[in-house]
Specification:
elongated; Serine Threonine Protein Phosphatase 5, Tetratricopeptide repeat; mainly alpha; about 425 residues; 19 helices; single chain
Length: about 425
């Protein structure tokens, strides 16, 4: 039985570029990346071997850029198949023009997928796709996550199909909107559905799409979200490494003061969950200083999950974990008072933390009152992270489990509606 020839395109391009061995190409990637403004980008000989196999994986966006720089060919021509759809190498239809300037340029001559009977999509398609992405972003705050999630993934699949049929400015618009859609899906999977492994895969797709759009700030946001996964699992070094990468991408942005403060808040939460409370409090103070100093640039419209009130919520949670109960109570109450009415998900988290403060202070009645308010909000706006806070509070009330207020909380926590809803989600 004959062996599969492997990715002969990449191998031929490698040899033609003067890299006689796979190790030589791997070394060249490590040397060239810093010259292109990318630190920490490397590739080993094993990775190059996988690229030259019969089924080469799509490279990481930064590594892909270095490959294109070194070999002077697009990734598709080097034998890679993009994750958003396959393309067939055949002469392009001369009637298919660049939707940006109406000319048949080299960029416009992207191979059209087999089975496509029309020319490349008009520029309006990209805007229409992005409009739906923006609508999903707004719906996240009011629609049940289990209901919204399939719609977001379906929209992302559409984006993958459209991406292989567009070029120029329209392709960049679709790629950016696709990255947003995958980011939203990953957020739902991690924060709402508690599917960390699945979220990691989805966020990787978001990063690949952001690389196609060449949107460094969006790439930074995706990388920061990936840090939550190891951070919540107690793997501090992995979380910090991803945040170092997120900050490197943000410097290419440029990023707003709000964006920089959010990166501090993300790292602070990861440090808090790993038990490094002093470091977390330092990061939050730095984020507060960044917000106070401000910046000229505005945050991107897709960054609708963070502001000064959210930073205060991060701070209150860290103060709680550090045992600074009076400060935590004051911080969290202030954040709750300033929280916009439409921020129901964040409200459940703050109420849960306030309940935890009172439980730690030895006041079960106040703790139960806040926990019941959180459950009431969860009945309107489900949020798995908020429910986790309430369950943690209930565990901390074991010493008072025979008190009437705790029994009332149990009746609310384990009602038919709440129990079925939690199991369904």
């Amino acid at each position: 039985m004959s062996r599969a020839p492997g990715n002969v395109r990449l191998k031929s391009a490698r040899v033609a570029a003067g890299f006689a061995s796979q190790q030589a190409l791997a070394d060249a990637i490590g040397r060239s990346a810093p010259k292109l403004g990318m630190r920490g980008v490397t590739a080993g000989v094993r990775q190059v071997r996988r690229w030259e196999s019969a089924a080469p994986p799509w490279p990481h966006p930064d590594v892909g850029r270095v490959l294109v720089h070194l070999l002077r060919q697009p990734l598709e021509e080097l034998g890679f198949t993009p994750p958003w759809g396959q393309s067939e190498n055949r002469p392009p239809d001369p009637m298919c023009l660049d939707p940006v300037n109406g000319t048949t340029t080299a960029a416009a001559l992207t191979p059209v997928p087999s089975g496509t009977t029309s020319c490349l999509k008009p520029v309006r398609v990209g805007q229409d796709f992005a409009d739906v992405t923006r609508a999903h972003r707004r719906l996240y705050w009011s629609v049940a996550p289990a209901t919204l999630h399939p719609a977001v993934l379906g929209h992302a699949r559409l984006g993958c199909a459209l991406l292989s049929e567009t070029v120029g400015g329209s392709r960049a618009v679709i790629a950016a909107a696709l990255a947003e859609s995958y980011l939203l899906a990953g957020r739902i999977e991690f924060f709402d559905l508690r599917q960390a492994d699945r979220a990691g895969e989805t966020l990787l797709r978001a990063l690949q799409a952001a690389g196609e759009a060449d949107d460094s700030l969006l790439g930074s946001a995706v990388l920061a979200h990936t840090a939550f996964i190891p951070g919540w699992a107690g793997r501090r070094d992995d979380a910090v490494e991803r945040l170092v990468a997120a900050r490197a991408y943000a410097r290419r942005g440029p990023a707003s003061a709000e964006f920089w403060a959010w990166l501090d808040a993300v790292e602070a939460e990861c440090q808090t969950r790993c038990g490094n409370l002093r470091t977390a409090l330092h990061l939050i103070r730095h984020g507060e200083d960044v917000l106070a100093n401000g910046s000229e640039g505005a945050s991107p419209p897709w960054m609708d999950w963070f502001d000064a009130t959210r930073l205060a919520a991060f701070k209150g949670n860290t103060q709680l974990k550090a045992g600074h109960l009076p400060q935590a109570r004051e911080t969290l109450q202030s954040a709750l008072d300033q929280l916009p009415a439409e921020s129901g998900k964040q409200r459940t988290v703050i109420l849960g933390d306030l309940a935890a403060v009172e439980a730690a202070a030895g006041d079960p009645e106040k703790a139960c009152a806040y926990a019941c308010q959180a459950l009431e909000q969860l009945g309107t706006t489900w949020y798995a992270t908020g429910m986790d806070r309430v369950r943690d509070v209930r565990r901390s009330l074991a010493a008072w489990q025979h008190e009437p207020c705790v029994r009332d909380l149990d009746d609310r926590l384990y009602s038919w509606g709440t129990t079925v809803s939690a199991l369904r989600r």
